[in-house]
Amino acid sequence: MASAPKEPESTQRIASDLLHDIITLRTGIASEGRASYDGWKHQIARSRFAASALNFAQYLAFRRDDLRPLQRRLMALGLSSLGRAEGHVLANVDAVIAVLSRLASKSGPEPPFPSSHQFFRGERMLGRNVEEIFGTQASGRGFILVTLGPEAADDPDFILRLGRAGMDCVRINCAHDGRAVWERMIANVRKAESTIGRRIRILMDIAGPKVRLAATATPPDRGRLLVGDDILLCRDIALCPEGPGFKAACAPPQVLDGLKPGDPVSIDDGKLRGHVSREVSCGYLVHIEGGRQKGVKLQPERGINFPGVRLNLDPLTGQDLEDLDFIAEHADLAGYSFVETAEDVAMLQQELAKRRPDWRKLGLVAKIETPRAVKNLPEIIVRAAGQQPLAVMIARGDLAVELGFTRLAEMQEEILWLCEAAHIPSIWATQVLEGLVKKGVPSRGEMTDAAMAGRAECVMLNKGPNVLSAVATLDRLMRRMAEHQVKKTPMLRALHSWSEGDVP
User: For the structural domain made of 212-305, what CATH number should be given?
Assistant: First the structure.
């Protein structure tokens, strides 16, 4: 005889079980979050960051476990999936608890819903922090940051044209040009401000301990280093007459002190990849195992990375300290390249304090470029934002080389989430609309990347001959995408592309 079909489990029972699990989750979030926050409090001098730091600590506790099974159970009841809780962790969880308690019909007083003011508090705090870093924005989209080239110093109208096209702020890379050029750039920015009628914030990056090739040597009949070749990395190629035809000195030379056979090596932003095959009398032999087919032309100033290798370089070079004198006097924002720890942040803040008494008003941009920086990002954020206005730049160039391109795609999302949880603005950087900037035509993938970049508070364009067109294109794209999505949240604007008589 066939057994009777099981009756579907009641919504009340499902809600009751879920309510128990969500309350348990909330208890753990509140407890772990408070413990982390208490460990951070001594670093927080800015009172306005205190509430953000607590939410940040709660978010880290919230994301410590795999919540996917819980997500699906909530979705089946049409409830919040908790997938957009970054800016308001406990308020989001409390809203779910309030709904579940009513569905479960528990006896006793029903827990209240968080007010709209409580629920969107994080959004308002992020907005205030964005304004503190970048200024006001009337267009409804994120900010557009443009890296300046030498023409910005020599053509006074160049900045004006960029500003009218939609540029909001500029970046000066201290690894290039020099003080005389920077002064002319800044003068042209200030002149453009008065004409446009709005402020253009100036970000100046210290170069940091970027590892590059110094002097190079190639075989007489070869200009390019290819897959399958060997190259000798050394301190001084003049002292290395033996070895393969390809040789390069590293700058700074002390990076070689931390190498050993088996360590990975990446040349020219990942165009060639290999590993240290063995140590020789005057350096290390590297075998190139993969990369682009045409290889790279071996030249000084090419970047070189050792992914995952602790190089123990000083986070602030002697040149950085000289450049900080200029930055402290002229910039609105100081960019910190290759920052990796909270101790690095403290070192920079001590140097800024020597240079201006109101250093806490100077915005700091932490450029996240290495796996170690990613690992230490919570401590970097707390130490920095606890003392001064902060933005985080997702510096996807070196980060892709260090993490690998597959991991980069995942990691840029996680960095966006952590920044939102701390109510800290983020900057999406490196090769945005690069084809358009450099060649005048974007690729399809670049347009999609630029659209996704709008989830950050600011998007950075590199310098190039067609940057004016890129600014105008990005401005239009970001305005359109802002109507559809803010951070991770779809806005559900009406769709018109399929309306009768409406042809795209």
Answer: 2.40.33.10
